[in-house]
Design goal:
Elements (H helix, E strand, L loop, with lengths): L5 E4 L5 E9 L4 E5 L4 E4 L9 E8 L3
């Protein structure tokens, strides 16, 4: 797995993301092309190597 951002593409519907496992020190970007919803999290800094990230997005 190459180093860098983890890109997660969402379908153009109401979407809920839970329990997304991310590695320490990685940058995580979420985007939804059809609606232009985007969230760019800064470098993840955690005490443990893996954690649970909960992100919820709402459609119109």
């Amino acid at each position: 797995m190459p180093a860098g951002d983890t890109i997660i593409k969402l379908p153009p519907v109401k979407q809920t993301i839970t329990h997304c496992r991310v590695l320490h020190g990685k940058k995580v970007k979420f985007h939804q092309d059809s609606t232009g919803i985007s969230l760019d999290l800064a470098t993840v800094k955690l005490d443990s190597l893996v954690t649970t990230l909960e992100l919820k997005t709402k459609g119109n």
